[in-house]
Design a protein that fits this description.
This protein is mainly alpha-helical and about 130 residues long. The chain is about 40% helix and about 10% strand. Strand 1 and strand 2 form a beta hairpin. The structure holds adenosine-5'-triphosphate (ATP) and magnesium ion (MG). Adenosine-5'-triphosphate binds next to helix 2.
């Protein structure tokens, strides 16, 4: 049976397979305008509504700010403000946040024995900047 959401959306069988896929990694490859973003949107909703995953535990990454904003706006329209607890952002913004966090952790815990969180070999750079 195909996935539906309310009265307005009925997924195709391929979309249903992707939306309801088990939690393992999944890659969607399809032509322009065939419904990839729509599939991603309803997969996001499916994780929350059908699998009980909290929005704050979902990360969605896009290439452009515009795509991130569009995804957020479409999700808010469908399932409300809870979506704002999720992280929907661009690759650049997410990596920048991660870099800032790691720098903060290193500064606050300078090479303390047993700290697994930030420890890395001394000849390794995590980011090239
Ligand atoms: N199952 C469906 N039933 C009806 N309309 C659908 C369905 N899936 C997608 N659409 C509609 O098809 C259009 C294109 O969908 P979408 O934007 O998700 O495609 P896309 O593959 O992400 O496109 P692009 O390649 O431009 O990024 C949208 O108007 C969307 O609402
Ligand atoms: Mg798209």
């Amino acid at each position: 049976m195909n996935y539906t959401h309310g009265e307005r959306f009925r997924a195709t069988s391929d979309q249903t397979e992707a939306i309801c896929h088990d939690s393992a990694p999944l890659m969607i490859l399809a032509g322009a305008g065939t419904g990839k973003t729509t599939t991603l949107l309803y997969r996001f909703i499916y994780l929350i509504e059908n699998l009980g995953i909290k929005p704050e535990h979902i990360l969605a990454i896009t290439y452009t700010e515009r795509a991130a904003q569009e995804l957020t706006d479409r999700l808010v329209k469908k399932i409300g403000e809870q979506v704002r607890d999720a992280t929907i952002t661009t690759f650049h913004s997410f990596c920048y946040s991660l870099d800032t966090l790691l720098r903060l952790c290193r500064r606050q815990n300078p090479h303390k024995e047993g700290n697994q969180f930030y420890r890395e070999p001394s000849n390794t750079n995590l980011f090239d900047n």
